[in-house]
Amino acid sequence: MTATTAHVPWNTSGGGDSPQVTDPDPLGPQRSRAQALRERLCPPMPGSPLAGWLATLSVAILAGLLRFWNITQPRGVYFDEVYYTKDAWGLLTAGYEINSTTCSGPAYVVHPPFGKWLMAASESLFGYTNCAGVPHGDPELGWRFSSALFGTLAVFVLARAARRMFRSTLLGCFAGLLLAMDGLEFVQSRIGILDIFLMTGVVVALACLLLDRDDGHARLADRLTAVAPPRPGPALPAATAERLDRLRELYGPRLGFRRWRLACGVALGLSMGVKWSALYTIIGFAALAIAWDIGARRTGGARRPVLGALRRDLPAWAATFVVVPIATFLATWTGWFVTDGGYDRHFYGNGFGAAVHGWWKYQMAVLQFHEGLDQGHDFASHPMSWLVMARPVPYFYSSPAYGTSGCHDPAGCSREVLALGNPAVWWVGTAGLVGMLAWWVARRDWRAALVLVGFGSAFLPWLLFPKRTMFFFYALPCLPFLILGITALAGLALGPRGASDARRLTSALTVGVYTIVVVLLFAYFYPILAAQVIPYSSWRARMWFPGWI
What we know:
Blueprint: H1 27-41, H2 49-68, H3 81-94, H4 114-126, E1 127-129, E2 135-137, H5 139-166, H6 169-180, H7 183-188, H8 195-225, H9 238-251, H10 259-272, H11 278-299, H12 305-312, H13 314-331, H14 334-338, H15 352-371, H16 383-386, E3 393-398, E4 413-419, H17 423-443, H18 446-459, H19 479-494, H20 501-529, E5 534-535, H21 536-541
Antiparallel strand pairs: 1-2, 3-4, 4-5
Helix pairs in contact: 1-8, 2-5, 2-6, 3-4, 4-5, 5-6, 5-8, 6-19, 8-10, 8-11, 10-11, 10-13, 11-12, 11-13, 11-18, 17-18, 17-19, 18-19
Pfam families: PMT (PF02366), PMT_4TMC (PF16192)
Function: Protein O-mannosyltransferase that catalyzes the transfer of a single mannose residue from a polyprenol phospho-mannosyl lipidic donor to the hydroxyl group of selected serine and threonine residues in acceptor proteins.
Region (Disordered): 1-34
């Protein structure tokens, strides 16, 4: 928010040369001023809160039913489940990843442990396969349950975040439905690999960031316009009161402890505890937070809003987006530190200092691995191709013959799990980025900035490593921001509540038809997302491009 308002009078806390209030209701003008400023900084949420919760929860329940239904199919491990299921079992039984070849000693793994701890938690509840290949309970449910749970949670949290962002329950449910009906998010919610945990962590951090924005703006408005009671004891010297008043005019008030910003830092640290790539989202969200602080102080009448944000907000901001994520990330390695068998745990000997030194050596080895990962792969793709889904990843494929595995077609059948996004979401969302850029240039709207910065921090860093082996599912953290961009465009099309009936009707029909297309495309591609047995001709009809085969 960049617009300014007329200077808002600042209130001294007692003493000095404060003007005498002669209004018979001295709080009346202050209340009016507070209400106007609060509505500008933090517009009220329309409608019933209960209705908002029920509506967004309904979308999440739909997403959950889709993701948990028949989740154990196909049986066995496929694609990178072969690695992460064993890592999770090692964490569950030893506190660190175990070498799956020898079933003893540490394994060298190249991703932090938090996502695998989440898988280990569900394995402890439902089942697992040990290192020797002996199953216990229902192994597939064990290592996929947590993925489905977090994939469903992401839908609910994004719907709530979009509702707050656009002040509309309808648009919040619209955003949640788009995520629920996206094929890539659906597939990643039904496989035991890490990316769904990374995306959900980013969405939770986004929701906390939006809550902090509203809470901080509301608190700023309240402190700008509050009438302070007289101080007990002697009044402040006139010079001191004048100096305090001057500082408030220049910089604005302090906002105190910001619990939602702290929660955002924790969520970002946990996201980095799944994959290192969350580091770039930390940088993007940190930039948004300080920019919003500057904008709020400018709108509140601070004469030097930049310096005000630096003086009043920067220390807590640095703690939230630097100290807290680092501390949280380190906490995800607790199992490695408190046990004795982790990789490089005793490379430099015993003791705390030696453990820290060994851990740092381990991280440098992981960094070197990622920087040098450039071997070819049949399913690899360049990041620019992700936006048009040029090369989705076939996680599983089999071709049942007639009369076997439910195949009733004499020409044979196909069964596949293809990590393919919904074309109506990815293609429209990619085009919508242009609209978001135009909206930000024309209006400097903070919501457009959020979409662009969030998407950019999840996508652009991959362009820095053109030779690295990469896959389409790496783009999953970009998806929520593409959906928020589509949602913003839908909101702009619908217009304000006072728009003409003709515009509202035309826009509602357009958005409604688009939503139906999204749902129908998800239903059309569902068989190749959920490993259903279909005739080969039906499978071939869904292979729209050679790169999808």
